Amino acid sequence: YLEFVCPVVAKPPADRPTQRGVTPQGPEYRLMCLEGERIETPLYWPKCTTPRVCPAASGPDIRAEKTGLSNSYIDVYEYEHVNLTCSDSVKEIPGTILFSVHCGFNPDPEAEEGLWVEPK
What is the dihedral of CA 97, 103, 107, 111, to 10 degrees? Predict the structure, then answer.
């Protein structure tokens, strides 16, 4: 694959000086290499945009009393995730996989925030 990667955004957050843009397809766009040193030609080139934040305050409600997970979100950007941990160390099972909540791409160009993806 040949990876199309967005450039660093014009005004990155202070804590992320090398933050790159994102596309509707993800943080990178892969093009398949074809025979004869050619690459596939996309129907359209994706537009790079500045990733929008999914604020911690609007993270999905994970009911700690039912799930045993802490509701401790942090701000993340589109295509990033937050790992939630057990709210009670007694309930924690050693060696278990972390439970992740994803900040998805918001297709609305006017929106100021990414979209939290509700866990299934």
Answer: 170
E-strand ranges in 19-77 read: 28-31, 33-34, 38-39, 53-54, 76-77
Whole-prediction pTM: 0.78
Q: What is the mean pLDDT of residues 19-25?
A: 91
The strand pairing partners of 3, in sequence order, are: 30
Other Cβ atoms within 10 Å of 30 Cβ, number: 13
Residues pairing with 86 in the sheet = 69
User: Over 90: is that where the pLDDT of 78 sits?
Assistant: yes
* Cα–Cα distance measured from residue 103 to residue 80, given in angstroms and rounded to the nearest whole number: 6
